[in-house]
Amino acid sequence: MSLNNAKKIKIERLEAIEKKHGVELNVNAYEIKSEYHNYDEARILIEVIGDIVNPLHFMASIYNEQGELIGVGSRGDIRPDTFDGIDHIEIEIAAPPGKKIDKVRVYPQRVR
């Protein structure tokens, strides 16, 4: 999926949760029109930096202009024994047909 003609999406980080888990997230997000389907997708690129103690999973939620939650996604477990202080994760979330993506919220979550 190309980022040509992609529109940047506003990002909301939950920095208190990042700090709690010992990471900082560098996030870029783009709205991309699907080439084959009648919906838009959010492509979320996350750089994870820090020193983790517990395994982490990464969550993302997309919202429309009215602040309504219209999609969710998650990706990847990062484990302390294999984490070298930096890693990258990509999450793709399809918006419902006809819904425009206004904002993405991204945060780490401890693996249960």
Describe the structure.
There is one protein chain. The chain is mainly beta and 112 residues long. The protein has a single domain (7-110), classed as Sandwich (Immunoglobulin-like), CATH 2.60.40. It is 5% helix and 56% strand. The protein has 1 helix and 8 strands. The protein has one helix at 15-20; strands at 7-8, 10-13, 23-33, 40-50, 56-63, 69-78, 86-94, 103-110. Strands 1-3-4-7 form a 4-stranded antiparallel beta sheet. A 4-stranded mixed beta sheet has the order 2-8-5-6. Strand 3 (23-33) and strand 4 form a beta hairpin. The longest helix is centred in the N-terminal third of the chain and has 6 residues, at 15-20. It is elongated. The mean pLDDT is 92.
